[in-house]
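Action item from last meeting closed. Structure (153 res):
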């Protein structure tokens, strides 16, 4: 019964820490509880706990962390996050009042992010922000040179 209680306590503690460390010892405790249920002496139960815990820490935890890291690093942005920062082609003059751009094959209403800029059809611009269904755009040459629109205030 001790091993089951220890396993449950460790599993609950893992919920609060989310380190994927305590759960490995909970697995070891449940394995030791299984050994106890089969009638193994206390020394064997302790060895089962130690071996299973060590194996899960050494084998399973790195694999889980590697998988979690690869999925978070390799995820392509979707929705508005994918549009912001992309390049757009001006189809109709863009200024602070109106405009039309093409972003990845889709038509978007657009306005200039900077009130002093306007863009003629055929010009490439960078999408800085999306507000509702309107893309706020910036001169692509400026944004690729390293100056960010946020730096201008």
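Sequence:
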């Amino acid at each position: 019964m001790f091993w089951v209680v220890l396993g449950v306590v460790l599993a609950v503690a893992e919920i609060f820490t989310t380190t994927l460390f305590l759960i490995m010892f909970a697995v070891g405790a449940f394995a030791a509880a299984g050994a106890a249920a089969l009638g193994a002496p206390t020394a064997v139960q302790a060895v089962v706990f130690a071996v299973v815990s060590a194996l899960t820490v050494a084998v399973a935890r790195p694999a889980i962390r590697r998988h979690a890291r690869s999925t978070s690093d390799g995820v392509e942005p979707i929705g508005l996050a994918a549009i912001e920062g992309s390049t757009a082609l001006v189809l109709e003059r863009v200024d602070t009042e109106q405009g039309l751009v093409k972003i990845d094959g889709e038509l978007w209403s657009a306005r200039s992010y900077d009130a002093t800029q306007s863009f003629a059809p055929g010009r490439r611009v960078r999408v800085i922000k999306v507000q509702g269904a309107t893309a706020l755009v910036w001169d692509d040459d400026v944004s690729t040179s390293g100056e960010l629109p946020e730096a201008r205030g």
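Note appended to the action item: Residues 6 and 29 are 6 Å apart (CA to CA).
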